[in-house]
Specification:
about 575 residues, Rossmann fold, 12-stranded mixed sheet, Formate_THF_ligase_CS, Domain 2, N(10)-formyltetrahydrofolate synthetase, EC 6.3.4.3, ATP binding, alpha/beta, ligase, one-carbon metabolism
C-alpha cells in the first residue's frame, strides 16, 4: 500500500484490497458492535441501526463533515474519491473515522460515467458488490415502486370493466382515476431512453387499461427520496402511504393508501432501512445508504446513515450530490432541517480542469480525450474560472459554515496553477488543501485531513436560508438569487397556478422545497458556465411528492430517465469464467 493507480485499473486495486478486507465478524469486533447489531450479507453486512442507536443514545455525536463540489464537468470532479480520501487521511492521523455515501445506480454504472466507488487509492470496496446491487436496496425500491403501478393500472382496468355493484362485490370502491392525470410511471435502474414515453394496455380489455405511460430510472423514485429522509421504520411506513400516484376526475389525489398497496410496498422495503457496511481500500469503515439523482430528489446519503455514523465515530463524513448550488443547498435547507443535525465543516471539491472549463475552456465530452487546454498549464483559464469556485464558497458561508476547499489533484496540474487557486481561495478566509488521495491514499490526503480537523474546531453559526413558513414562491426567489445568482424568477401560468394552490392549502405548509435543475451550470441552462450574469430562473412546473413531503419547482428540461451513450461502460465489463470475478468496472 498504496497501490499504483497509473498501472492498475480500479477493479484490480479493489481486488487486491479485498483480499484483506475485514469479515462481518471482524468488523463487529473492530467497531465494538453487539452480535445482533450486524446482519451479514456474504462478505459485507448491514447494520441494525435501531439497536445501535438505542445502545449509543447517550453518546455525544462526533464531528460532522459534509462533502460537496464546484459546478462539475460532465466527467465529475471526484466527490466520492475525495470522501474516501478524507476518511483515509483522518485514519492515517489516528482518528476514529467513518462515513456514509450513496449507493450507485445501475444506469451510470453501465453507462459513460461508470460506478461511483471513487478511484485509485481512494476507493470503496468491495467494488463489485457496491457497483452491482449491493444488498438489494435499489432492487427493493424498484419492486415497491412498480407494485404501486401494478395496483393503479389493475384498478383502472377493473373500474373500466365493472359497474359499481360489481366492484362492491369485489370489496372495491370506485376511485374514478383520471387517466390523463397519472403522476407515477414505472422504474428500471438503467439509463433507457427508449422507455421515457410508452403506451401500455395494448390488446383486449383483459390486457389492462390502455393509456400513455412512462419509465424513470429507479433512483429517481420518490421511494428513494423517502429512504433518504426517513428517521425510522415507522416514519418510512407512514410516508409510503401518502405517495400520490394519480388524481381522480374531480382533482383529488389518489394515494398508495387509497389503492391499499402501501403495506405491501413497506414489506418490500423493510430491509432497506438498515445501512450497508463497506470500507475504503485502507479498510476504514464507510456506510452505504440511499441513492443519487440530486437534481430532482434530495441526492444525499441518508439521515439514518448519518445518525448512526455520528454515534459510532468521532469524525463522520457524508456526501451530497453534485455541486453546492444543488447538493449542499438541499443538505443545508432540507436534510439538516429534517434531521436536526448541524455540520462542522463542508469540503468543496475542485479540480483544475473544471476551473479551466468555467474559464472558457473547450467543451468536455465524456468518452472523448480531453483537449490540450486541460492537460497543459493555462493560468488565464484557471483565473477566469475561479469565479465559479468563489461563488460556491459563498453559498456554503451563507449557512454559517466555514468551508475547506480541496484541490483534487491530477498529474496534469502544475505548481503555478495550484498556487493561484490556493492564493485566491485563502483571500476569502476559507482553508485550501491540495490532496493526492487518488495517487497515494491516506498519505496523500494528510494536508486535507489536517485542514478538516482544524476547521471542525471553528464555531458554527448555522442558519437556514429561509423559514419553513415562508410561501413557496418566496423560497424559490431566495434560492434563485442567493444560491444560483439569478436576477429573479419567472413562472409559467401552469406553474404559478400550482404554486398558489400549494401556498393556500395548509396541508402543504410543512413541505420541503426541492429545486429541480441541471447540475452542469449555476443556472437552468447547462451550456452557461462560470457564474452566469443577467439571467432569470424559469419555473415551468411544480411536482409534488406527497410521501416525501417535497414540492419540486422545475427549472428547464429535466428527464427522470437518462439516456445511454454511444460508448457505454458495459462494453468493457465481463467476468473471468474460471473464477467468476467481474472485470472492467470503473
Amino acid at each position: 500500500m498504496p497501490y499504483d493507480p497509473t498501472k492498475m485499473k480500479d477493479w484490480q486495486i479493489a481486488e487486491e484490497a479485498e483480499k484483506t478486507m475485514p469479515t462481518p465478524e471482524e468488523w463487529r469486533e473492530k467497531l465494538g458492535l453487539e452480535k445482533d447489531e450486524i446482519i451479514p450479507y456474504g462478505r459485507i453486512a448491514k447494520l441494525d441501526f435501531l439497536k445501535i442507536m438505542n445502545r449509543l443514545k447517550d453518546r455525544p455525536n462526533g464531528k460532522f463533515i459534509e462533502v460537496t463540489a464546484i459546478t462539475p464537468t460532465p466527467l465529475g470532479e471526484g466527490k466520492t474519491t475525495t470522501t474516501m480520501g478524507i476518511i483515509e487521511g483522518l485514519g492515517k492521523r489516528g482518528k476514529n473515522v467513518g462515513g456514509c455515501i450513496r449507493q450507485p445506480s445501475g444506469g451510470p454504472t453501465m453507462n459513460i460515467k461508470g460506478t461511483a466507488a471513487g478511484g485509485g487509492n481512494a476507493l470503496l470496496i468491495p467494488m463489485t458488490e457496491f457497483s452491482l446491487g449491493l444488498t438489494g436496496d435499489i432492487n427493493d425500491i424498484t419492486n415497491a415502486h412498480n407494485l404501486a403501478m401494478v395496483a393503479l393500472t389493475a384498478r383502472m382496468q377493473h373500474e373500466a370493466n365493472y359497474d359499481d355493484e360489481e366492484l362492491a362485490k369485489r370489496n372495491l370502491k370506485r376511485l374514478d382515476i383520471d387517466p390523463k392525470r397519472v403522476e407515477m410511471g414505472w422504474v428500471i435502474d438503467f439509463a433507457a431512453q427508449a422507455l421515457r414515453n410508452i403506451i401500455i394496455g395494448i390488446g383486449g380489455k383483459k390486457d389492462g387499461f390502455m393509456m400513455a405511460s412512462k419509465f424513470g430510472i429507479s433512483v429517481s423514485s420518490e421511494l428513494m427520496a423517502i429512504l433518504s429522509i426517513a428517521t425510522d421504520l415507522k416514519d418510512l411506513r407512514e410516508r409510503l402511504g401518502k405517495i400520490i400516484v394519480a388524481y381522480d376526475k374531480k382533482g383529488n389525489p389518489v394515494t398508495t393508501a387509497d389503492l391499499e398497496v402501501d403495506g405491501a410496498m413497506a414489506a418490500w422495503m423493510r430491509n432497506t432501512i438498515n445501512p450497508t457496511l463497506c470500507c475504503t481500500v485502507e479498510h476504514q469503515p464507510c456506510l452505504v445508504h440511499a441513492g443519487p439523482f440530486a437534481n430532482i430528489a434530495v441526492g444525499q446519503s441518508s439521515i439514518i446513515g448519518d445518525r448512526v455514523g455520528l454515534k459510532m465515530w468521532d469524525y463522520h463524513v457524508t456526501e451530497s450530490g453534485f455541486a453546492a448550488d444543488i447538493g449542499f443547498e438541499k443538505f443545508w435547507n432540507v436534510k439538516c432541517r429534517l434531521s436536526g443535525l448541524v455540520p462542522n465543516v463542508s469540503v468543496i471539491v475542485a479540480t483544475i480542469r473544471a476551473l479551466k472549463m468555467h474559464g472558457g475552456g473547450p467543451k468536455v465530452v465524456p468518452g472523448r480525450p480531453l483537449p490540450e487546454e486541460y492537460t497543459k498549464e493555462n493560468l488565464e483559464l484557471v483565473e477566469k474560472g475561479i469565479e465559479n469556485l468563489l461563488h460556491h464558497i459563498n453559498i456554503v458561508k451563507k449557512s454559517g459554515v466555514n468551508p475547506v476547499v480541496c484541490i483534487n489533484s491530477f498529474y496534469t496540474d502544475t505548481e503555478e496553477e495550484i498556487k493561484l487557486v490556493r492564493r485566491l481561495v485563502e483571500q476569502t478566509g476559507a482553508r485550501c488543501a491540495v490532496s493526492e488521495h487518488w495517487l497515494k491514499g491516506g498519505e496523500g490526503a494528510l494536508e486535507l485531513a489536517d485542514a478538516v480537523i482544524d476547521a471542525c474546531n471553528d464555531p458554527v453559526d448555522f442558519k437556514y436560508l429561509y423559514p419553513l413558513d415562508m410561501p413557496l414562491r418566496q423560497r424559490v426567489e431566495i434560492i434563485a438569487k442567493e444560491v444560483y445568482g439569478a436576477d429573479g424568477v419567472s413562472w409559467t401560468p401552469q406553474a404559478e397556478e400550482k404554486a398558489k394552490m400549494f401556498e393556500s392549502d395548509p396541508a402543504y405548509r410543512d413541505f420541503q422545497t426541492m429545486m429541480v435543475k441541471t447540475h452542469l451550470s449555476l443556472s437552468h441552462d447547462p451550456t452557461l458556465k462560470g457564474v452566469p450574469k443577467g439571467w432569470v430562473l424559469p419555473i415551468r412546473d411544480v411536482l409534488v411528492y406527497g410521501g416525501a413531503k417535497f414540492l419540486c419547482p422545475v427549472a428547464g428540461d429535466i428527464s427522470l430517465m437518462p439516456g445511454t451513450g454511444s460508448d457505454p461502460a458495459f462494453r468493457r465489463i465481463d467476468i473471468d469464467v474460471n473464477t467468476g470475478k467481474v472485470m472492467g468496472l470503473f
